[in-house]
Amino acid sequence: MITRIWRLLPGPLWARIVQAAILVAVFLVALSFFYDWLGKVIIDQGGTVG
């Protein structure tokens, strides 16, 4: 899957590297927000500690 995405990126090698770095950063930020939402909404319903 990663190689398929790499081949779909347009431009020379340096442009592909920049695009891949931006895609990874966006993915990590989205994953962080997803885990935060999952922790607040699904897993932690409030209640007592312990």
- Taking the alpha carbons of the first and last residues, their distance comes to 42 Å
User: What is the approximate shape?
Assistant: rod-shaped
Order of helices and strands: HH
Tally the structural domains: 1
Uncertain segments of ≥5 residues (pLDDT<50)?
Answer: none
Mean pLDDT: 87
Look at the helices and sheets and give the structural class.
Answer: mainly alpha
Amount of helix: over 70%
Let me know the largest β-sheet.
none
Query: What is the tally of helical segments?
Result: 2
Percent of sequence in beta strands: under 5%
Task: Using the CA coordinates, give the radius of gyration.
Answer: 18 Å
Question: How many β-strands, per DSSP?
Answer: 0
How would you describe this protein?
The termini are far apart. The chain has about 50 residues and is mainly α. The protein is about 75% helix and about 0% strand. The protein has helices at about 1-10, 15-45. The protein has one domain. The mean pLDDT is about 85.
